[in-house]
Write a structure and sequence with these properties.
single chain; alpha+beta; Beta-Lactamase; five-stranded antiparallel beta sheet; three-stranded antiparallel beta sheet; 74% helix; 9% strand; rod-shaped; Chemotaxis protein; transducer; sCache_3; Sensor-like_sf; MCPsignal_dom
Length: 569
């Protein structure tokens, strides 16, 4: 099993053990070294103390100065060569120290034994000689005494002149046994302490690590639940302000934010699904309505083309009447000026109609404008009918006047013969005007029937084009002013002779028919434009329908994905 597959608790406990065991080993090693050094230091201190004590005893027991006589070391008058009693007694007093007196660097009295013999004549170690005899300083530390290491202290001996002539040395016995005993005791104490501390540390670490890993496991369980789609989780208790507590609080905030976000996404997906369904239904209804409008507009276009043909025939008839006009009287100039006024007002009305057409950029606006044009065409045809009736009435009155003139000319006899010829011509002109008026009336009747048929076809669509009523109303006002101006023209024409009245009436009728033809052509063009626009709108609505269907499918997929998350317990 690999280390990375262990739990966090196991890893932490192993890490703590790996830290504590080397730490205790290092501390034990340091304690052993410290104990050994302490023992060595104590031995050196003891050797120095024993050296000073022994030298004081020498001074007390053997008064006098140090000197060399005949190759022997003297203290006062006593030769110290072979004076083993003092060194043995002092060695016994100090607990077994090695004690020696040196003449120069050679032992002359010593407790040191080799092969059961005192080692007289042996020399001191070189480092001792260098420090004590050469430098004249006290030596303290380890020294090799006959191949055995001692903790020693050496004091230089000086004669009266201050010359160094020998040494007084004391050495503690070997410390290996003492150090070994102390090391065993220290090792035992360290081992016991380590076991106790490790046990306590393991228990405390297990308790502490278990507390940490318990909270980490709780966070891990929450993460697994969130990964499984469960957001209906209770809030974890952070407990502390450490990193685990911060992680727990962050996890609580994350779950809360996810729960809120998924709730909003779910609500939004429902709204999108509902909106897409409504958009689907609206697009389908709009498609059906657009198809109906396309059919109606095509019917209107066909009717408008028929109207154009009829109006064109009427215009040809009126053109024949207008060809009879040769002379215009002064009164007709006034009528012409009034007619110009009517033309200007009609142009204003035409501009108003054009403004309405420009404003109706959508299908509903174009249909409303077309309905207004057709209604205006009906009004114009009615007005033409009134003009025809007026012409018929004028022709009748003219015929009566011609009859009266014929009667009066008959009464006048020979003198009234010329007047009779004029009356006969007037009567013939009245009859021709009556016939033309009848033909125009028939054309007007046919136009009115076509207009009525177109109006009936537009009744189903007129409700959709009410938005353009204001603009068309302006156009209606303009045409109302045209009607008033034309009425003034009619009054002026009455002041002219019968022939001028007939001619002017014919001229006005020709203009009216020409305008009707222009309006009919404009209506035909408008219906074609509307038909093309509605077909484009139909294609657009089909694209909208397809997009709304795709949106509905996406909303259902989003609801399915969001449904995997449990937001409430």
């Amino acid at each position: 099993m690999k280390f990375r597959s262990f739990s966090i608790r196991t890893k932490l406990l192993v890490l703590i053990v790996l830290i504590l065991v080397p730490s205790f080993a290092a501390l034990g090693y340091m304690d052993l070294k410290r104990v050994g050094n302490a023992i060595v230091g104590e031995s050196i201190v003891k050797a120095k103390s024993d050296m000073q004590t022994g030298y004081a005893l020498l001074e007390s027991q053997y008064p006098g100065a140090w000197s060399v006589r005949n190759g022997e070391l003297y203290k006062g008058d006593i030769s110290m060569n072979g004076n083993n009693d003092f060194v043995d007694a002092f060695a016994k007093l100090t607990g077994g120290d090695t004690v020696s007196l040196f003449l120069g660097d050679v032992r002359v009295a010593t407790t040191s034994m080799k092969d059961k013999k005192r080692t007289f004549g042996t020399k001191a170690a070189a480092d001792v000689v260098q420090t004590t005899l050469v430098k004249g300083e006290v030596y303290s530390g380890e020294a090799d005494v006959l191949d055995t290491v001692f903790q020693t202290a050496y004091l230089p001996l000086r004669d009266d002149s201050g010359k160094i002539i020998g040494m007084w040395g004391v050495g503690s016995p070997s410390l290996d046994d003492r150090i070994a005993v102390h090391e065993q005791a220290v090792k035992r104490d360290i081992l016991i302490t380590a076991v106790i501390v490790l046990a306590i540390a393991f228990v405390l670490s297990f308790w502490f690590v278990n507390r940490i890993t318990k909270r980490i496991r709780a966070v891990a369980g929450t993460i697994e639940s969130v990964a499984g789609g469960n957001l209906a989780l209770p809030e974890l208790n952070a407990g502390t302000d450490d990193e685990v507590g911060a992680m727990t609080r962050s996890m609580n905030r994350m779950v809360q934010d996810l729960r809120s976000m998924m709730s909003q996404v779910r609500d939004a997906s429902w709204q999108v699904a509902a909106s897409s369904e409504e958009l689907n239904a609206s697009a389908e209804q709009t498609n059906r309505a657009t198809e109906l409008i396309v059919g109606a507009i095509q019917d209107i276009a066909a009717g408008t083309e028929h109207q154009v043909s009829i109006v064109e025939d009427g215009r040809h008839v009126l053109q024949e009447i207008n060809n009879r006009i040769e002379n215009i009287t002064k009164s007709t100039e006034i009528a012409a000026e009034r007619a110009n006024d009517a033309s200007a007002i009609a142009e204003s009305g035409n501009q108003a109609i054009q403004s309405a057409l420009d404003q109706m950029t959508s299908i509903s606006q174009t249909i409303t404008e077309l309905a207004a044009v057709i209604e205006g065409l009906g009004e114009s045809s009615k007005y033409i009918g009134k003009i025809v009736e007026t012409i018929t009435g004028i022709a009748g009155q003219t015929n009566l006047l011609a009859l009266n003139a014929a009667i009066e000319s008959a009464r006048a006899g020979e003198h009234g013969r010329g007047f009779s010829v004029v009356a006969n011509e007037v009567r013939m002109l009245a009859e021709q005007s009556t016939d033309s008026a009848k033909q125009i009336g028939e054309y007007i009747h046919r136009i009115q029937e076509s207009i009525a048929h177109a109006v009936q076809g537009m009744e189903s669509s007129i409700r959709e084009v009410r938005a353009g009523e204001n603009v068309v109303f302006v156009a209606g006002e303009s045409f109302s002013q045209i009607q008033q101006s034309i009425t003034l023209v009619a009054k002026s024409i009455k002041e002219v002779s019968v022939e001028a009245r007939e001619m002017v009436a014919s001229t006005q009728l020709s203009d009216a028919m020409r305008k009707i033809a222009e309006v009919a052509e404009s209506s035909s063009t408008g219906t074609q434009y509307v038909s093309a626009s509605t077909e484009e709108q139909l294609a657009t609505m089909e694209e909208v329908y397809a997009s709304s269907t795709s949106l509905s499918q996406m909303a259902e997929e989003l609801q399915r994905l969001v449904g995997k998350f449990q937001l409430k317990s």
